[in-house]
Every structure is written in C-alpha cells, then in structure tokens.
C-alpha cells in the first residue's frame, strides 16, 4: 500500500460533507491538508478539530470559480508544506422545463471551470515532482441521467471524461495517478442548494425509501484509491447505497 505519511493534500469543498470527511480521514494518516472552500469559519473549525487530533491543516478560503484564488491556494500550499502530492477535487438540480438558468451557469462554473482551475494550479508542481494523485469527484449522474439532472449530469459526465483522458496522459508520462469517484446518494448539504420544488419533493421521497451513504463512506473510498500500491491506478469507482435503484 502507498504510505500517505508526510504527504500534502489540497481538499476543495472542505467546509462540509465529502470534503470535510476526506480532510479528517487524510489527516489521520499523517497527511498535511490544505482546506479550501468559501466558508472560512467552517474551515477554521475543521482545522481546529484536525489539530486537536494531532494533525496538520492549513486554511485557504477559496472560490474555485476564481482562477486567481485557486492559484493562490496552490501557492500557499507549496509555501507552507513544500509540495502538493494529492488533490481531492470535490466540487443543485432543476428540471429543464423550469428554466433555472442561473443555477445551470453556477453548475458549469463550479463543476467544470472549478475542476479545471484546480487541476491547472497543481499540475506544474506534480509534474516537477514526477509524482502525484488527483481525485476528481464525479457522480453516478456522470453515468446516468434522471429527472432534473440534465445540466448537472452534463457537468459530471465532463468530469468523468476529463479524468479518463488525464489518467492516460499523466500516469504513464509523469507518474501522476488520476481517479474518478462517482457516488450515488450521499447525505450531504446538496439539497439545501436546490430551489426546484419538484426535485426537492422527489429527493424527500428517496431519503424516506432508502439508507443514504454518509460522507465518511466516500472518504473511505477516496482513501482506498490513494493508498493503492504505487504501481496501481484505481481509475474509476462507482459507489452506491445498497438499496438505491437506477
């Protein structure tokens, strides 16, 4: 297994959910973690928790849709820790007929442009090191569409396709492994960002009918991919609740 002790990771979306759980999980293995998200007070609290448990964390308030802020995140991580070994790229749903165009644009800005900004910011350091691991969080919606997911699925299909091409180009030539993690239903704050009442009603029914995964379940999945032997690249992982259909 790959030893993560003394590795350095950037985790975006670290203020809650999958990003927060992943930061905790990596810190437990001795990884120094740069915590990135917009909600600084949440990041401060997470840093304090990690440090109380004996870990090391750096707070980097970041809007991933702003390329300059993402570059500043990478620069601050290098200044603080000297390397970037891991990037965990953890970045609302509405029916097309309801025309939530502002939400569509936000999905593209975060799930497409934000992912590209983070990849572009860390690649120079990883290529110079001749090693690294990029984990992009896609979704089951990056494989299958469902009511309300047209734009969201489009962004997650992009992340999956990007990850596949990145792995083929970066792993053999630069020893940079790339993994796409594709979760099904996870109990996160995502419903709080959705304004489409039709979608919210359907999500409520889904939560009543099955046991959703926890953020820690996805953090464990990411940990599995990161700790695979160095000659193994876990390219893609689809992770579903046992009783989720579709």
By DSSP, the count of extended strands is 7
Radius of gyration (Å): 17 Å
By secondary-structure content and strand pairing, the structural class works out as alpha/beta
pLDDT under 50 segments (min length 5)?
92-97
Distance between the termini: 33 Å
Helix content: 40-55%
**Largest sheet: spatial strand order:** 3-2-1-4-5-6-7
Largest sheet: 7 strands, parallel
What is the percentage of strand-forming residues? 15-25%
Rounded mean pLDDT is 89
Determine the number of helices (DSSP H or I, runs of at least 4 residues): 7
Mass-distribution shape:
globular
Order of helices and strands: EHEHEHEHEHEHHE
Description of the structure:
This protein has helices at residues 17-28, 40-52, 67-81, 101-129, 150-174, 197-209, 215-226; strands at residues 8-12, 32-37, 56-61, 86-89, 132-137, 176-183, 236-239. By secondary structure, it is of the alpha/beta class. It has a seven-stranded parallel β-sheet with strand order 3-2-1-4-5-6-7, sandwiched between helices. The protein starts with 7 loop residues before the first strand and ends in a 7-residue tail after the last strand.
Blueprint (SSEs and pairs):
Elements: E1 8-12, H1 17-28, E2 32-37, H2 40-52, E3 56-61, H3 67-81, E4 86-89, H4 101-129, E5 132-137, H5 150-174, E6 176-183, H6 197-209, H7 215-226, E7 236-239
Parallel strand pairs: 1-2, 1-4, 2-3, 4-5, 5-6, 6-7
List keywords for this structure.
7-stranded parallel sheet; 48% helix; 7 helices; globular; 246 residues; 7 strands; alpha/beta
Summarize the structure.
This protein is α/β, with parallel strands linked by helices. Helix content is 48%, strand content 16%.
């Amino acid at each position: 297994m790959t030893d993560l002790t003394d590795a350095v990771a950037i985790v975006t979306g670290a203020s809650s959910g999958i990003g927060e759980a992943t930061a905790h999980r990596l810190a437990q293995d001795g990884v120094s973690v740069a915590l990135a998200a917009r909600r600084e007070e949440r990041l401060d609290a997470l840093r304090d928790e990690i440090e109380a448990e004996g870990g090391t964390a750096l707070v980097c308030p970041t809007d991933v849709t702003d390329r300059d802020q993402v570059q500043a995140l990478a620069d601050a991580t290098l200044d603080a820790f000297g390397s970037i070994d891991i990037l965990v790229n953890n970045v609302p749903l509405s029916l097309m007929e309801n025309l939530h165009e502002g939400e569509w644009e936000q999905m593209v800005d975060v799930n497409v442009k934000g992912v590209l900004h983070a990849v572009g910011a860390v690649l120079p350091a990883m290529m110079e090191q001749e090693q690294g691991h990029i984990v992009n969080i896609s979704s089951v919606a990056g494989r299958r569409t469902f009511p309300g997911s047209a734009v969201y699925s489009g962004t997650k299909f992009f992340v999956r396709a990007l990850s596949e091409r990145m792995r083929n180009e970066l792993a053999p030539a630069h020893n940079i492994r790339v993994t796409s993690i594709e979760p099904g239903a996870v109990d996160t704050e995502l419903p709080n960002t959705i304004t489409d009442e039709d979608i919210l009603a359907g999500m409520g029914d889904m939560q009543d009918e099955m046991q959703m995964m926890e953020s820690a379940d996805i953090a464990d999945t990411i940990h599995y991919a990161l700790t695979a032997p160095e000659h193994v690249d876990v390219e893609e992982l689809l992770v579903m609740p046992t009783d989720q259909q579709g």
